[in-house]
């Protein structure tokens, strides 16, 4: 019996951790297949593994909920991409979040959440964990003082950070919030979905664990749903908590819960996600270039009342973003002055497809108030009704600008 599914015999190879980002994304965990020399990890579409005598596991593989070679390759690549201690791949971003929350929280605990958190994250914390006795406080994370005030020493076990946030693209100072969380014995988790590990490395800024919806930029092609957790090297559970395996290591608790609850990424989904990860850097360069140009275009447009993009000097979080990100991302939000005009733009664009989600190669447009954030109307997370959100893709910029021009006409 393997008790730690991550204690696998990794094929001998380079120490990719000292390599650059793209080299890590392309090679970490992905040495050519030992049996055949296959250059990319095969899709091990298999549930169980022959044992050489009872307990004689080959490479640590026993049953694919506990560990699967294709998933292990993805987990190692994600770990290396974030510069962490261990990676875990899940069936969705919310499955990853659910596993983290179970591993870290107990009834009576308290969580600080962003006041414009991803709607599904807020729903999970408020409406799934709430009835199990977990309390939460929504806070504007752009204000570290407000976060400090919301922390209840001894009760707060997690400070949940998104930066940039969705859809208002608020910026939180990761290093400042990590220090606040640590002084209260709580963990700092950063949902790095919008920024991606290419543009932002939260673990290096003091976060304990990073969460991803790999459905978005890491997958990058709108063809797979997945999630991930990457823990900081040596990360511990909140002060005072011992995990189910008898240790205080965060990696042990998450590994136990991943295997016990079983919301793992399947082999094919893992393979698609790995395929996306390899080109993350080149895609992000184009996303950032296009988004920067789109934000500048919209800022000069008479029918647009406000443009929200962390790369603009007018953004209140611009300086913090410039310090902790190597690029400002591919998401741009803007306001049109009325619900009617916002809905009209969403109805008219052609290159920007009207759809939820984000982070794929194709440009998307959506109305958060009626679409992704419809479920938070009337709560602290409600968004303005004239807000439009763009996921700027990697098409030709001239076509994107022409499409917005006719959409706003
Ligand atoms: C999409 C998303 C999630 C949830 O991920 P799923 O893969 O849809 O379960 C969490 N956080 C952010 C920021 C997201 O955009």
From TrEMBL:
Entry cofactors: pyridoxal 5'-phosphate
SUPFAM superfamilies: PLP-dependent transferases (SSF53383)
InterPro entries per UniProt: Cys/Met-Metab_PyrdxlP-dep_enz, Cys_met_metab_PP, PyrdxlP-dep_Trfase, PyrdxlP-dep_Trfase_major, PyrdxlP-dep_Trfase_small
Pfam family, one: Cys_Met_Meta_PP
Keywords attached to this entry: Pyridoxal phosphate, Transferase
Domain of life, source organism: Bacteria
EC number(s) recorded for this UniProt protein: 2.5.1.48
An MF annotation (GO) of this entry: cystathionine gamma-synthase activity
CDD domains listed in its UniProt record: CGS_like
Keyword Acyltransferase: no
Homology family: Belongs to the trans-sulfuration enzymes family.
Protein's UniProt name: Cystathionine gamma-synthase
């Amino acid at each position: 019996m393997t008790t730690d599914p991550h204690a696998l015999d990794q094929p001998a190879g380079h120490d990719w951790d000292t390599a650059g980002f793209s080299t890590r994304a392309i090679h970490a965990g992905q040495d050519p297949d030992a049996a055949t020399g296959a250059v990319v990890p095969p899709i091990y579409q298999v549930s169980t593994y022959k044992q050489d005598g009872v307990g004689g596991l080959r490479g640590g593989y026993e049953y694919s909920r506990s560990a699967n070679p294709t998933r292990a390759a993805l987990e190692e690549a994600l770990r290396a991409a974030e510069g962490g201690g261990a990676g875990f791949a899940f069936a969705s971003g919310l499955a990853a979040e659910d596993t983290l929350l179970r591993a870290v929280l107990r009834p009576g605990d308290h969580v600080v959440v962003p006041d414009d958190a991803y709607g599904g994250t807020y729903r999970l914390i408020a409406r799934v964990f709430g009835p199990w006795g977990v309390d939460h406080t929504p806070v504007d994370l752009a204000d570290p003082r407000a976060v400090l005030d919301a922390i209840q020493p001894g009760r707060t076990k997690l400070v949940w950070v998104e930066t940039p946030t969705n859809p208002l693209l608020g910026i939180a100072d990761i290093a400042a919030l990590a220090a606040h969380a640590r002084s209260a014995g709580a963990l700092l988790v950063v949902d790095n979905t919008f920024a991606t590990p290419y543009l932002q490395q939260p673990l290096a800024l003091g976060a304990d664990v990073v969460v991803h919806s790999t459905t978005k930029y890491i997958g990058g092609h709108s063809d797979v749903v997945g999630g991930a957790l990457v823990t900081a090297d040596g990360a511990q559970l909140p002060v005072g908590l011992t995990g189910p395996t008898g240790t205080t290591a965060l990696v042990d608790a998450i590994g136990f819960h991943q295997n016990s609850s079983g919301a793992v990424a399947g082999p094919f989904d893992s393979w698609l996600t790995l395929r996306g990860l390899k080109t993350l850097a080149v895609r992000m360069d184009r996303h950032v270039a296009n988004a920067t140009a789109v934000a500048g275009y919209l800022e000069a447009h008479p029918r647009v009342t406000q443009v929200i993009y962390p790369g603009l000097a007018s953004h209140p979080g611009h300086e913090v973003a410039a310090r902790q990100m190597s690029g400002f991302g591919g998401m741009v939000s803007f306001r049109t002055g009325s619900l009617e005009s916002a809905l009209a733009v969403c109805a008219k664009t052609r290159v920007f497809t009207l759809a939820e989600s984000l982070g794929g190669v194709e440009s998307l447009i959506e109305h958060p108030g009626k679409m992704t954030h419809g479920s938070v109307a009337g709560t602290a997370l409600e968004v303005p009704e004239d807000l439009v959100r763009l996921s700027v893709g990697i098409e030709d910029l001239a076509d994107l600008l022409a499409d917005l021009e006719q959409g706003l006409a």
